[in-house]
Amino acid sequence: MPAGRFGESSRGVGPERVPAYVVQSADNALALLRALVERGSLRVTEAAELLGVVPSTAHRLLGTLCYRGFAVHERQGGAYRPGPSVLAIASAGNEPAGLRTRCRPVLERLRERTRETVSLLVLEGAEVHFVDSIDGPQSLRVASRLGVSLPAHCTSGGKAMLALLRRDELLARYPSNRLVGRSARSIRSRKQLEIELAEIRVRGYATNFEEGDTGIGGVGVAVAGIGGLPLAALALAAPISRLGTPEAADHIVAPVRAAADELRTALAVRLDTTAPARPPTAPSDRALRPAGSGSVR
Predict the structure, then answer these.
(1) What percentage of the chain's residues is helix, strand, coil (to nearest 5)?
(2) How far apart are CA 128 and CA 225, in angstroms?
C-alpha cells in the first residue's frame, strides 16, 4: 500500500491494522473524505497525489462524494470542501439523532402554532429522508413520516432543498429528463422541475399540492449550510381541505419561514454570502396555483 495511505501515522489518526481484503474504491473514497475533513479543502491534483491515482479517477471519486453530500464543489477548477452530510454527521454521533436533538424544540413550537404535522428532512441524492416528524393534534391530520424516504421532487421540503443546488449539481441527481412521480400531480420532467425551482428561489419557499400523496398539501423551507448548499429542510403537511386556498397557504407560509430561521440558529449555520448567486426567475402565477384550482402548489 502506498505511503501516506491507511495504516500510516501521517494520516493524522495513528497506525491502523490493514484488513486482509480491502475494497479499493471504498478505501479511496474514505481516504478522500478524511482528507477533506482534516485539511478543509482538496483539489483534484492533491487528491490524485494523495491516492496515487490519475486525476480523472480522483475527479470521479470526488464527484461521488459530492453526489452523496459529503463534498461540495463551488466552481469549475476550484477546490472541494466538506459537504452538508459531513456537517450533519459531525453534529452528533449519528446524523438523524444530532439533527433531532437540535431541531426538535423548533418543530414542537411550529406544531403548536399551526396545529399541523411538521417534519425535518435531509437530502441524499434525489431523495429526502424524514429524520424527525411530529403529528398535528387535530383529528384529521397527516400522519408522521418519521423514517420515510420519498422522491425529493414530490415533496415541498425536497424541492426547497433542490432549489439551492447549481444546475450541474441538479443534473447529477436527475440525469434523465423523465422523472418518476407518485401521483397525478407529480412533476414528471426535469424541465418542469427546473422551472419550478427557479420560482422557488424567488419565493424563498416551496409548496406541494397533492404531488406526493392525494389529499395532502405542504409548505417547505430549506436551511442552507456551507457554500449555500442544503443542510436540511422544514416542512409542514396538512389535509388539502385546510391548505386548499391561497389565504390558507399564506397563513401557513409565515410560521414555517420563521421556524426555518430558528433552525438556522439552532444548527449554528452562517449563510455563505460568497456563494455564487443563482439567476432569479420571476415566478409565474401558474406555479403558485395547481392546475384547475385557485390553490398554491
Answers:
(1) 40, 15, 40
(2) 16
Neighbours of 288 (CB within 10 A): 16
For the stretch 98-106, contacts whose Cβ atoms lie closer than 8 Å and that sit 24 or more positions apart, written own/partner, are 99/131, 99/132, 99/232, 99/267, 100/131, 100/132, 102/266, 102/267, 103/132, 103/232, 103/234, 103/263, 103/266, 103/267, 104/132, 105/266, 106/234, 106/259, 106/262, 106/263, 106/266
Query: Is the pLDDT higher at 100 or at 87?
Result: 100
Q: To which residue does cell 422522491 refer? A: 151
Query: Do 229 and 83 form a contact (C-beta atoms < 8 A)?
Result: yes
Question: Which 3 state secondary structure label does DSSP give 177?
Answer: coil
CA distance 49 to 51: 5
- Express each pLDDT in 123-166 by its tens digit: 988 999 998 999 999 999 998 888 888 999 999 999 999 999 98
Q: Could you give all domains of the chain from N- to C-terminal order, each with its CATH number?
A: 9-82 (1.10.10.10), 88-266 (3.30.450.40)
Q: By the 8 A CB rule, do 132 and 96 touch?
A: yes
The predicted structure's pLDDT at residue 159: 98
E-only strand ranges, the chain: 71-73, 80-82, 117-124, 127-134, 149-151, 206-209, 216-224, 230-239
**pLDDT per residue over 232-268, tens digit each?**
999 999 999 888 765 667 788 999 999 999 988 887 6
The three-state secondary structure class of 136 is coil
Q: Are strands 206-209 and 149-151 parallel, antiparallel or unpaired?
A: unpaired
